[in-house]
Amino acid sequence: MPEREKAAHLLRRATFGPTMREVDAAEQRGFEATLQMLVRPSSPDNLSYPRLEPDPYAALTRQSTREERQAAQKTRREQVQQITGWWLDRMVTAERQLAEKLVFFWHGHWATSVQKVNSAHLMLAQQQIFRSRAHGPFGDFVKAMLRDSALILWLDGQRNTRKAPNENLARELMELFTLGIGNYTEADVKEAARALTGWTIDRTTGVASLEPNKFDDGQKMILGRTAKFDVDSLADHLVSQAAAPKFVASRLWFRFGSAEPIPSSVLESMSAAGDVASMMTAMLRSEEFGRAQGQLVKQPVEWLVGAVRQLGISGDRSAFYKGLTALDQVPFRPPSVAGWPSGNAWLTTFSAQTRLRVAEALAAKAVTVPSDTDEAARVLCVDAWTDRTRKLLEGVKDPRRRLALALASPEYAVH
Amino acid sequence: MDALTRRKFLIRSGVVGAGALAAGATALSLSDVLKTAGDKPSGAKTLVVVTLYGGNDGLNTVIPFADKAYHSARPELAYDEPEVLKLDATTGLNPALKNLHELFGTRRLAVIRGIGYPKPDRSHFKSMDIWHTAEPERPGPTGWLGRWLDAVGGDPRMAVSFEKVLPPLLAGASSAGAVVGTGEIKLPRGVTRETLAALGTSVSGESPFQARAAACFADLARVDELMTTVSEAADDSPSPDDEAQATGTGGGAGLDAQLSLVAQCIEARVATRVFSVSLGGFDTHADEKQPHQGLLGILDKALGAFLKRVQGKDVVVLVYSEFGRRVKANASDGTDHGTASSLFLLGDGVTGGLHGEPPNLSDLDNGDLKYTTDFRDVYTTVLERVLAADAARILGPWKGRLAGVL
Predict the structure, then answer these.
(1) Angle at which helices A186-195 and A231-239 pack, to 10 degrees?
(2) What is the mean pLDDT of each successive set of 10 residues along chain B, which is 406 residues long?
(3) CB contact under 8 A, A115 and B2
(4) Is residue A33 less than 8 Å (CB to CB) from chain B?
(5) Burial category of A54 from C-beta neighbours within 10 Å (exposed 0-12, middle 13-18, buried 19 and up)
(6) Which among A168, A297, A409 has CB closest to B209?
(7) Number of domains into which chain B is organized
(8) Within-domain flag for B70
(9) B68 lies in which domain range?
């Protein structure tokens, strides 16, 4: 495969959509150096979180009027919009593209929705854990997540007490976050729920803490071991299972590699790799990854953010971000605890017409407007148009209209 | 109850991506279905399957109000005798189910108690796969009504869902039911049907996903004109943020709208024999008494109106959920994922009344109800009595049948 196509494939998957210049640079630098730069970036992070006003709910009391409550709810909605716009802007502009994409991956993995959590502050606090802890040992990451107020609220962890355990968090912890279905029993779920009892959230500060009298400190038998498990020893016990690194590897492959099942050699090398950076290196370097072009459907966020990057759209991008609602993928609002769908789920007649509409709006504001069909392929980082699309694009005279159709094309829908 | 569409639930389901569904369901417009008006053979019955996503709490739907064990297991959640709509001396319906109670009174509602399957799975996704495929041991790539469709020739208009994505139960091995779009198509100005057709041209050598992306445009071109006729009807309409209660497993409002489209088709005597509709939002784990009652109210209102409309038209409705909830409440005045539950069959030809043995609340399996009737008994009976099909071709050598219900 030509060096340029190799680099383009790598960048399409490991970034939110590479610009023509980024592909040029990667081609010059070579595959291995580009991979290293993505996985272990030396560029500065330039991260600054948005300044949020205090959570308006903290100021409410029993005496607060209906109007005050409505005003607080309105402020909360605005804060959610604020952090959503902030995050999408980061996806567009972040130097460390793979790191940013991994934050989005972990968000989909721990799939917590602001719809139930109802606080921009708590959603942002959860994201800080993705940014600070996901690089280190998986056990430490899981421990931090099990103390995360947003996750606890999302899965009713604050309702889980010694007297009457609530299994929601324990079940999803094993099924969706650490082990995967089939690697634990119903009895394990019930026992693990006991280990997670006693956590409460302070309504005013949003801080999670353990209330010892609500915690079940007795013996629990989980996955063949009996101990007085608590949140930390449970996390350690789960991540020490052989299934845990395999599960994480397969989830990474599913989002970055291919919709096809993870090949056993890749599974082996990723599970043995250790931290996430090493797992990603093992995946992206594998031959199987190199052969996986076109095996993923772009998620709407990838499609839209990529287009914004490639077309050089700057300034207030909030109008484009609204397109994500129609495309059914709004950050901070995953549809269920299982995260976002993939593959064909994004390819419906409904999504096709929505992409046509959003593509037209994007093309209208594009700073980089390709002058012909070949340049459109380079700008959008499409390896090649099929004859079908080439014929259609070449028949369109208006460059912005041509660009809109290129954005909506089947070739640009996958990567 | 929440803004989530059932579609997202299905996508998580392991069934999706296999069998005929991988190729994508046939997208049709309501007009395509209505074109078959009058094609229904005389005497042929229609099956309407109502799926409740999220695990409906069976014990607070069909309530054993006279059982002390019921009250002591869930004191805050339990309904007392004066509240329930009585079915007999010990059993009553949730107060929200007024229409169903009336249907029970006229013997058009059969309540089948203790429905479940061996080695119950408490994952929403896995258990729903099991119900969709009717294969508890190992859910395969096809749904039970999809296999029925295969057996009767595979015309997608025979099995219809009014949703964005086909439910796995309608996916067969060689054919799949139709998704009937109900939303209006809005194209940018200047994008003509010719443009859509051009984008939808298939070319050889494309990756399957890319080919599928192209096929969407071909579908879009085909239904462009027709779809505009049915705007608004059965859209999944999101509700305001503050109503969210469930941890997002399933959802989607508009059961009444879906059923009203079904009624429209049935009145026109279309060729469709199976309709699939759904209501989500049942995955409540906390403070669930009121929200649960609200959901049952939505179900009741929609079913009541629907059954009035199609009475005497040989329609049988099957209502189920992937599992019931734990007998004992959790600390949050909610319930966790459970096992056996009740199932409803309603409509013409149904022998109303209480059927099946109710599970014993004092003889639990690890805190959960033991099932007394396998759900496959219901499927085989429905296949034979409603669809006049050879159940063995669809469910294999399954012997169980429901006695005296249909």
Answers:
(1) 140
(2) 35 37 56 83 94 94 97 95 96 98 97 95 86 89 91 89 78 80 66 90 91 84 48 34 39 72 91 92 87 95 96 97 92 88 97 96 92 97 97 94 94
(3) yes
(4) no
(5) exposed
(6) A297
(7) 1
(8) yes
(9) 6-183+232-395
Please identify among residues 262-281 of chain A the ones whose CB lies closer than 8 Å to any CB of chain B: none
Q: CA of B388: how far to CAs of B43, B44, B267, B275, in Å?
A: 11, 8, 21, 16
Token pair for B201: 């041209």
Q: Which of B165, B223, B247 sits opposite A168 (nearest CB)?
A: B247
| Interface mutation vs chain B, best among A303, A325, A344, A358, most B CBs within 10 Å | A344
List beta partners, residue B85.
B93
- Residue A349 and residue B328: Cβ atoms within 8 Å? no
Q: What is the DSSP string of B73-130?
A: H-TTTPPPTTTSEESSSS-EE-TT-HHHHHHHHTT-EEEEEEEE-SS----HHHHHHH
Residue B186 CB neighbour total at 10 angstroms: 11
Nearest-neighbour CA in chain B from A333: distance (Å): 10
Its pTM surpasses 0.80: no
Closest Cβ–Cβ partner in B185, B211, B247 for A154: B247
List residues bridging with B111 in a β-sheet.
B344, B354
Using a 10 angstrom Cβ sphere, with 0-12 exposed, 13-18 middle and 19 or more buried, the burial of residue B80 is exposed
The CATH number assigned to the domain holding B64 equals 3.40.720.10
- Which pair of structure tokens corresponds to residue A153? 């609220």
- Tell me, yes or no, if B126 comes closer than 8 A to chain A by beta carbon: yes
Helix axes of A138-146 and A120-133: crossing angle, nearest 10 degrees: 170
Give the DSSP H/E element, type plus range, for residue B347.
strand B341-347
Q: Is residue B193 part of a domain?
A: no
Q: Within a domain: residue B263? A: yes
Q: How far apart are CA A52 and CA A59, in angstroms?
A: 15
Q: Do A351 and B216 touch (CB under 8 A)?
A: yes
- Which structure tokens are listed for B246? 């469930």
